[in-house]
């Protein structure tokens, strides 16, 4: 039986996942977890990450875009979302405006 995932491990996994690392890289970074364990855990917690953007997050994207321009990876550290998701949200907001 595997040891339960700690909140700290989840935080590291989310951080690495937002940077779009492969499952092997996540496993190497966590050390004592296999690539399969990391991939399975990522799939389990990704549902929370893939939730729709809130109005607060959309406003935050607008603000960060004014500050940094289209530096999606930099924004991803602040929003805990993947750069691709942030860019897609930005493009959708631009279409509406």
Automatic annotation (TrEMBL):
> Mind telling me which InterPro entries this protein's record contains?
Homeodomain-like_sf, SANT/Myb
Q: Which residues cross the membrane?
A: none
- Could you tell me which PROSITE patterns the record lists for this protein? MYB_LIKE (PS50090)
Q: Where is the Myb-like domain?
A: 1-46
UniProt-listed Pfam families: Myb_DNA-binding
User: Entry's SMART domains?
Assistant: SANT
Return the protein name.
4996_t:CDS:1
Source organism: Paraglomus brasilianum
